[in-house]
Structure formats: structure tokens, C-alpha cells
Write a structure and sequence with these properties.
Blueprint: H1 3-12, H2 59-64, E1 70-73, H3 81-84, H4 96-102, E2 108-112
Parallel strand pairs: 1-2
């Protein structure tokens, strides 16, 4: 989501959005090793793996160490690239069978598609 999306939503909602009332807002520039995609340097199309095919901890894995629980609610298939980024560790986003195999071992408490 970009600034244009936020502005459009704000104007469509009589000038109010929860995000426009936040005390702090930040911007981040992240990119993969070969494309502009994720926050950790990796090859484009990989899920939870760096450019050398080593596992990178995802957000639920990091947060579980602090006692947080995580879940996914999506309109996409759970093996889609965006939802799968929260639980899968596969070198290619098209590896649906392997992505699904990662789900039972994930740190997710709930998921719904």
C-alpha cells in the first residue's frame, strides 16, 4: 500500500482513517538480492530463505519467542506467496506441495482463507 492508497481511503471515508491518527508512521526501503521485494536480502520468488537457500526466520517465528501468537486471514490461497511468507521456507514460491508441508510445523495458531 502506498501513500496514494492511504489518501484515497481517507478521502473516501470523510477524511478519517485510523492510520492517519497514529502518533508514529515510518517508511522503509527494502529489496531482495535481485529484485525489490522483501525486508531481508533474498532471491526473488523465495519464501523464508536467503539467497544461499538458508532459512530466514519469518515474523511469527520471531514473535513466538516473545510470547505472541500469530495467524493468517486471507482471501488468497494459503500457499500464495504473501500468506506463505508467514510460514513457509521454500526456495521457490511455486512449490505448493512443499509450502503446504511447512504449514503444520509453523508457529501459526490459526489460519483462514
Amino acid at each position: 500500500m502506498g501513500l496514494a492508497h492511504i489518501c484515497s481511503g481517507m478521502y473516501a471515508n470523510q477524511g478519517q482513517l485510523t492510520i492517519t491518527n497514529l502518533k508514529t508512521c515510518g517508511f522503509v526501503r527494502t529489496q531482495s538480492a535481485n529484485k525489490f521485494t522483501t525486508g531481508k536480502k533474498t532471491k526473488n520468488g523465495a519464501l523464508g530463505m536467503d539467497e544461499n537457500n538458508q532459512v530466514i526466520p519469518n515474523l511469527p517465528e520471531k514473535l513466538s519467542g516473545y510470547g505472541y501468537i500469530s495467524g493468517i486471514v486471507t482471501t488468497d490461497n494459503l500457499d500464495g506467496a504473501t500468506p506463505a511468507a508467514f510460514f513457509a521456507h521454500q526456495p521457490e514460491r511455486g512449490m505448493s506441495k512443499e509450502i503446504w508441508a511447512d504449514l503444520p510445523n509453523s508457529k501459526l495458531t490459526f489460519f483462514s482463507a
